Amino acid sequence: MSIVNNLANVRKQLPTHVRLVCVSKFHPDEAILEAYAAGERVYGESKVQEMSGKFERLPKDIQWHFIGHLQSNKVKHIVPYVSLIHGVDSEKLVAEIDRQAAKIGRKVNCLLQVHIAKEETKFGFDEPELIQFFESGGLERYPAVQFCGLMGMATFTKDNEQVKSEFEHLKSIFDRIKSSYFNQSSEFKDLSMGMSEDFPIAVECGSTMVRIGSSIFGTREY
Ligand SMILES: *Cc1c(COP(=O)(O)O)cnc(C)c1O
Hints:
This protein is of the alpha/beta class. 41% of the residues lie in helices and 18% in strands.
């Protein structure tokens, strides 16, 4: 299957209100250029150096989304150009993004990552921490951060009911945060959930943004 065919196949499973992030991590520039030629402009990367290299080399109308675990000391490298940071998983990281963004007079779009999976290894705020963040005025503390919504990853399992209940849980957290701390018309509108294996379930549960890699570009070679 070619990238163009894979893309068409993914696209036809997505309602028009769901945005596609093509996860290009570990794939070469040529693969991105094929998807680019097919009209895709939004790419997700999980390593700072890899994303910055691709940003330098590839067309400037590409929107780069950082989807990995971001270390505070690397924030400054992506803040000048990143279009959305999905995995903001601690207040310490929010603070560093705010500091670096303020320095260059930018407001940086971020999604707070929520830990919804059973696995210990996945990063993110748990629900009480997230509520505490907003209750304590987190929104006002970081004026150079634009809070655009939430992101989460389900447990890696074949048990679709488990995956579905985790996505439903994240959607309920999203609705609660949005109604408690934002205007309905605010920028807080994105719920990033769903990957190659589980995006149809995520879409069913209210995802507005899916992050899809292997179903478009094939398996990754690490
Ligand atoms: C790699 C990655 C994806 C894409 O995974 P696929 O299974 O290849 O679609 C999505 N989200 C995050 C956070 C990732 O690290």
